[in-house]
Each structure stands twice: as C-alpha cells, then as structure tokens.
Prior knowledge:
Strand order of the largest sheet: 1-2-3-4-5
Number of helices: 7
Number of strands: 5
Amino acid sequence: LIKEVSEFCIDLCSKKNVVFKSGITTNGVLLNKKNSEILSKCKINSVQITLDGSKANHDKTRVTVGGKPTFDIIHNNIIDYLNADENNKVTLRIHVSADAEENVVEGIIETLKLFDQKYRERITVYPHVLFSACSEKFSNESCNSNSVHLRDKDAADITNKIYKEIVKVGYGFGFDPGREMADRKSTRLNSSHIPLSRMPSSA
Length: 203
C-alpha cells in the first residue's frame, strides 16, 4: 500500500512540478534492507522508531511473537535504512520514566553509542517521558492509591539530562509538542491532523 500510494503521489507531484517527500512511523522490525530500498525509492526519507529506553530494557518489553528480543534486529535495520539513501534520516523516540535513576540515563547513552559515529548526524533523538495512570515504571505490576503521578518538572529534568548527554556523543535532538496533543491542528506547514472523532465511520 505504501509503495502504491507513494508512486501515485510522486507521479502527481512530478506533473505539478512539486517536490514530494514523506516519512513513516514504525517499530523498525520489518525495516530490513529490501524494505529500506523500497521506501527510499518511494522518497520516504524520514522514519521514526520507538525504543523502550536502553537496549536491555527494550529487549524486555519489545519482543517478537516467539518472545525473542528485538533491539539488535532494529539496530541492524536502521543501519540498512541509512545506507539505502544518503538522504534518509531516523528519529529515535526513546521512552523513559520521569523518576529514572542515573544508571537508566547511562544505559540509554551506552545504547546510542552502539551506532557508528558516521550515522549519528542523521539520527535525531527524542526522549519521551511516559505517563501512566498506575505507575511511573515500565513494569506496570501494581495499581494502587500510592502511585505517584508524573509532574512537568520531573519530565523536564530527565529530558534535560538526556539532551545534555546525547549532544556529547554526537547526536541531534528534537521534539514536536504539537504531536503530543490530541485534537489540535498540525504545527507543520502544508500538513494537517485529523482527529479520530472526525474520521468517517465505515459503511
């Protein structure tokens, strides 16, 4: 479907003398060499992939149907995607809890160091603080009255810690607060956001 839609858009834009480019969000598991080449031909030069914190934590929470860890698969696929086209860029959305200890930040930085230096200028890191009604932990084992709600200051503190460290190892960083809010117009030029509440119902 992506290939079909992209080819249609590329052809239409070419006829109208308009530059076409696009991006997708994916878990990265199927972003292998073959699919990376297809996406590049479709001018999909931007991919966002989510990691659940460090490699160790990600492999606990993001597993295949058979229970196998996925970080190494995703890591290799990101390299294949970046190698497929020099214009390709990746945004790593890294989930983290606001009460994360210092060793959690260190784990995330060590994980980012697994990417060769030559790729880092094309990888943007976006720390995303997780909000949960029951727990601030990745492991949501209990939900009780003593659960502590995340505060804006907590989120800012942990995000700033990560930002300071990722710059030291050669990464850019970014975030799009507009995408964090429901039912609002897109903050990007020539793009739009359609709330689910306004989507047409199926026949």
